[in-house]
Structures
1.
Amino acid sequence: MAAPRVFSVSELIRQINLDLFKYNDISVEGEVTNYTRSSAGHHYFSLKDSRAQIRVVFFATNARFLRFRIENGLQLIVRGRLTVYEAKGEFQLNAVVAEPAGLGALQLAFEQLKKRLAEEGLFDADRKKPLPMLPQRIAIVTSPAGAAIRDVLHVLGRRFEGLTLHVYPVRVQGANAAREIATALRHLSRWKLHDVILICRGGGSLEDLWAFNEEIVARAVAACEIPTISAVGHETDFTICDFVADFRAPTPSAAAEIVIRAKSEICTHIDHMTHRIHHIVEGRVRNYRHELRHLTSSDKLGVVPQRIARTRERLERRRVMLFRLLDARAKSMRRRLAAFDEPLAAYPARIVRERQHLKALMATLSAVSPLSVLSRGYAIAFSRTRRRRKPILDSSQVGVGEQIEVQVKRGRLVCTVDQRTLGVESLWPETDVL
């Protein structure tokens, strides 16, 4: 009997992968757990049910087509190929496509983005801008070839002629539609040339309207500084753009009716307000005339001139009193200034006398100053101590070898005592007698 073949680990796993080729295209349903995403865009998670679980790897090349976010707890149907991961010897499912179980991918992506933007406050009513009553310049972001633009132009022309309309052409369906819509909104917001912006598109399926559910469009609408009206699809269609915009219209035609009131409605409103103002003014004039007639017929009206005369007389008296008070105050200030000027007038002669006295003191100080003695050739010797210098008056105060300081007219000398005497010596050097 032949001995059984012995496989290496890599050979065995390679053989198992060959045997698993029949599971090259299978679909597995389960609940997502242990979800992680690498910096390269690869998704790693496990699918589990009540009894088992399997590892799943969803590489970025396939995951880029996902319309929704994978999250823990999400029930998924994953289609891919069953393999054995050689480095760890573990079964794993290399995913190619993933779909939410029981709910379409687009609908799930819609709900996820709606929840996230609502938590950020992009749907809050307090951040929405009011619409102008009678805008003069209107921008319309839509496809120039669609039915929506024709409906809008027809309604605006019928309700109020003479408006300035600018159509910003974009694609409203397809891969690049969301980017074009967001770019249009950013440009219009930066230019600030319009009073209101209409974002329009006709009806369609969820896939057809998906450009208006993209996050890039939602954030462009939220950041737009011009009031926006979203009119996408039919009355029963709702998009993320509808929730973020300042106002939502059920259809493009309704948006045109909302953005501007009919000229007849405005004229009727103006006529009504004019009649109301005229009625109020006439009522007030009648009341004032009645009060005036009552005052003219009253006995108290004749007292008014007398009261005015007394008030005028009282004001005249107070004016005179105020003038006298100010004049007396000015005279008092002049006297005080004159009193200050008298001592100041004597200051120049006093300064001359003080300057002469100061010169005399300086001459006396110079005469008795030791510096004047030094200028005649004398010097002063000081003994050096740590704290201070002390003049040497007797040679017995220093010893041979000690250092002393000698102050001359300019500068000091540090000297060493080589010899000392205790008697009186001649100040002049001896000379040889020839």
2.
Amino acid sequence: MKLKIILNEIEKKIASKPTLYFFLITFCVNLPAVFFARGYGMHDDHFGPIEQPWAIINNPEIWNSRSTPHAHSIFYPLLHYFLFKILYSCGITDPQQVMLVVRLLHSMYSTLTIIFLYKILSLKYNQTIAIRTSILAPLLWFMPFLSVRNLIEMVCIPPMAISFYFLLKNEREKKNLVLSALFFALAFAFRYQTLMISGTVFLILFLRKHFIESLVFGFSFLLFALLIQGSVDVFAWGYPFASFIEYVKYNFTHSGEYTTGPFYRYFLLLVGIFIPPLSFYILFYLFKNFNRNLCIVLPILVFFFFHSVFPNKQERFILPIVPFVFAFGLANFLDAVYNGKIFTNRKRYYKTIWTIFWIFNIPLLVVLSLNYGKKTRCEALYFLSKRNDVMGVYQITGKLGTFKPPEFYLNKYGTPVVEIPHLDSLDKFTSNTYQPNYAVIYGENEEVDSLRSSAEMKLGKQMKFLAKVEPSLVDWIVYKLNPKYNKNQTAHIYKIGCD
């Protein structure tokens, strides 16, 4: 009873200033990830938004020599370009310090998702359900880690949450429709696939015979998309929506070249990340009262269906709808429980569901929030960034195969990082064109010794061991589970040419 009283008091406190308290709750939950979840999780949350603007700042000729439109929006990298320019002008040039600021800003930005989820839920459900659902959303084990990443699939979520809020607040009021269209256009500029969500909203309004409202929404979206994304493309490529057109062409001609899987792949993903058996109830009750939240659930379903049937299936593609699936599925589930529709005589089973959820969620939340993604790649080059005599770096990966080095962490633009997947290819780099004086060898002890000895013979120089960088716990686990796609072995750093 005392716990219930305490919870009720907390809910009353939150309800008095929900924006403030949900900002503080989300920000505090994200704070460990801000400081400890360094590095990056996958290729796309570093090399586009971070490496690209950093390279252009150091070599403007990259921008001046552009030719055909890139098959991705430059809107998000452009924001990092301006941020980096500001930080560099303030004397903040250390890569780790720069990325700390980036993660901090993303953490603060991500609080908008939770704040507007609460605002949306409070329009549809009672205060208890809205507050409890909104508190749980930032505590999902993967949310803090992903909220500080540079993933456009996560960055597009806050403007979508704001869009849904204005839409559901009053879909017949033209001012709300214009504001909703504005933020959907912003989400589109981050992630083109969100067009399926805003497009479905337009169709819902039209099929409801709200013709004036649908035209206001559709025209406003096109206008704002033209002003945001179109103007950026005119500046970069000479005509509006150049990158979007190129993106569509590329995906329909190269979709089979990436990760594929069965149509139920994303369904299994949602079942797993929401932790069963709770996840089954969340997914079931998301569609249980379909008409109650039609303007959100149907666009989510269209987005989900498209990605389920499209050949290119990467886990991150489904992220834009994950908070909405969780929030509305859980809210409907709690509504059924609190109204006595289910579990009236099975309260022990209901408690067991939540016990299982927290048993798995809390450890995963802690581990992932403290995880340094791609630690060996980042720390090896960051270690060398502190040395003033680096003329070049051999990246010797052996059986791992090649992977793109995050040169941002080396912070020495123009210094070559030469990828050596097989030692035979060392021969072509021993000319006067390249004279790397450091090497980073990836592998385990015996393999590294063999690679080092072979490299010394080919180069005709001794190599002095300097440091070893172990992978983070999560990197090590995913490498052991799937070494083919997770190249996270230990990095060994050497100085070349030492007696």
3.
Amino acid sequence: MEIYNTLTRRKEKFIPREDGKVSIYVCGPTTYNYIHLGNARPLVFFDTVRRYFTQLGFQVNYIQNFTDIDDKIIKKSLEEGSDAATVSQKYIEEYYKDADALNVARANRHPRVSEHMKEIMEMVSALIEKGFAYEIEGDVYFDVPSFPKYGKLSHRSSDEILSGARVEVDPRKKNPADFALWKAAKEGEPFWESPWGAGRPGWHIECSVMSLKYLGSGFDIHGGGMDLIFPHHENEIAQSEAATGKPFARYWIHNGFITINQDKMSKSLGNFFLVREILEKFNPLSVRFFLLSTHYRSPLDFDFEKLEASGQGLERLKNSIDLLEEAIKKRSSAELKEKDSDFQTKLIDLKKRFNQAMDDDFNTALAIGIFFEAAKEVNTFLNQNTIFGKADLIDAIELYAYFNNVLGLFKTGPDGKFILEEKPHTDDSLVQSLIELLLEIRQEARTKKDWPTADRIRNGLNEMGIIIEDTPDGARWKISVQ
């Protein structure tokens, strides 16, 4: 397996820190809103990376954090007349709903910043003691010039670092590029007591602390979107390696942006689509298909026509699975021993090329293409053969299952079997309009003294849990509470 490492700017052979084990840390969302499609791309991609390692037999320790204390969360809480903890909890729960819909498995751990204040303070203290950080009136900053290798991930010069950093304007800092490790509390903000007074952590320190706590120094893969390379991941490296004196993470993987008309999708530009909004109109697994249909390092330009096309592609694969499962049901176990050697050779070759695609820097676009090749081969085999053994079909469905266990394009049950039937989506406005239409038809029947039709509509709605009440102002309806 070869992985493109942002740190070295080249593909490298993947050699895990421990044989048979893979450790992965991926930066999770800041929980102040629903996730948008740009957030969903790393969510789906790194879930697929984890799935592939698992299929290869690795024991994967996958950590994805929640940033549950941040300026944006505080601002949101003030807008909603709430508190930061309540806002964070709300959007963590909403995150899980979207992640579940996209068939993203839970991480081994989802640590929260608020749960790691002790460890954060310990790392900040260590950096001060070692001369890599300094405190000014309750604020603590990392001294960037004290870490000579600063810039090795983003490959930026000193001038580029200054111009490209989210430089916090503070004349007290020793260097304009120095970044906050701890922030003194402002009035009305949540805070924790620390050796430097009441305050809260800076953005970057949290991921260093949580990744090191759960994975240790020199863990295998650190991932996230390209927008995190600088300053977030650059700062993580500096403070982590300064504190421990050891290499931080070995392979750095960054996915490309999702664009709208070639402009990066982002909340700051106002050109973003919430996953929740998209899922109201599209099958969530079509969205997952779309996100994996382009190599992760390439930009992915979004439009609704491409989502439609993804849904059509998913339907083609579903139809092939349906045909195969139906064919298996029609054959007895007595036919298990018979196998077609040519067909078996094709199945073996398809799995080999699928793995080669994934081994080549997780090329999901090519892997999906091979899934389609498999569907074509299977469909042809079913159409051109009237006599074939059940064993061939079982091998084919197991190949489909292997592909799907990696790509996650279809949900599966506890028995590993495909779940292909979608639950119908209920659009509340559509339901309301249909009920109102039925009530109009019922009223016309009542006017004509067509009591059987009127009663049939009322009784039919009643059986569905919709109660009709006739009043002097007309019929009213409500949903029965069971």
